[in-house]
Design brief:
With 168 residues, the protein is an alpha/beta fold. Strand 1, helix 1 and strand 2 form a beta-alpha-beta unit. Helix 1 packs parallel to helix 2 and helix 1 packs parallel to helix 5. The model has no long low-confidence stretch (mean pLDDT 93).
Length: 168
């Protein structure tokens, strides 16, 4: 199973978009409080459209509660990481994989990262900006894992208009 972990997310639109991405990829979402919004806000529902009900998510009071309830292989996305996100092997579909992302303003705390330097990574970008948008980073990382797992159980053709829609 693939898991997305948002450490203290602050922007409801990002979380709503991530919930939609998780719903579309059979990915579990873990939210670590405090959240910068209420989960019932209109902005979450607007970004997640009608798909939030299909998102399996859990909320935790803090990092310690999350860590005691979840075991597996953890990867930390941080702008301070020294390895590209593509340098890891995520192909084992039997493994519980956790992709951890920090809050939009400050990222994952150094206290968490310093014990996991071998699993810290970054998405390579130029020096013009500090970082990419959180929901974009989640999508980039998640689809790298899914690519390495051959998009397990995901549709390869459009289900509503049919796989031959473009040829007709």
């Amino acid at each position: 199973m693939i898991n997305i972990v948002l450490y203290e997310p602050e922007i409801p639109q990002n979380t709503g978009n991530i919930m939609r991405t998780c719903a579309g990829t059979n990915t579990r979402l873990h939210l670590i409080e405090p959240l910068g919004f209420k989960l019932d806000e209109k902005s979450i529902k607007r970004c997640g459209v009608n798909y939030i009900d299909n998102c399996e998510y859990f909320v935790y009071k803090n990092w310690d509660e999350f860590k005691t309830k979840n075991k597996g292989k953890f990867y930390y996305l941080t702008r301070y990481g020294k390895k590209p996100h593509t340098s890891f092997d995520y192909s084992n579909t039997e493994e519980e994989i956790y992709l951890v992302f920090g809050k939009e303003s400050t990222g994952i705390p150094k206290e968490i990262l310093k014990d996991h330097l071998d699993h810290c990574m970054r998405i390579p970008i130029n020096a013009n900006i500090r970082s990419l948008n959180l929901s974009n980073c989640v999508a980039i990382m998640l689809f790298e894992v899914l690519r390495q797992q051959d998009y397990r159980d995901l549709l390869r053709t459009e289900p509503f208009k049919g796989e031959n829609y473009l040829e007709e």
